[in-house]
Amino acid sequence: xxxxxxARKLIQTDPESAGAKTLSSLVIALESNEAFPLGQLYALSxxxxxxxxxxxxxxxxDRHYSSKVRLLDLSVQAAQLTGxxx
Length: 86
Fold this sequence. Notes:
Elements (H helix, E strand, L loop, with lengths): L1 H12 L4 H15 L6 H4 L3 H40 L1
Helix pairs in contact: 1-2, 1-4, 2-4
């Protein structure tokens, strides 16, 4: 979650900057599962572009972990149902 924290700091520091607006839009698109125009990433400075890529990687990893947690929760519930019937 380091990239998300870096992005939050950048956005808080200068919310009107083009980079902050682009990163904000990216985060909103990721959270809402909406399309994001990738061309906007190319307008970022290189460090901000790298930060956007880090955000994407962290977001994907977090989504993977969220899926594992849901699977584990469902598995525990299924095991409890099976154990209750036995």
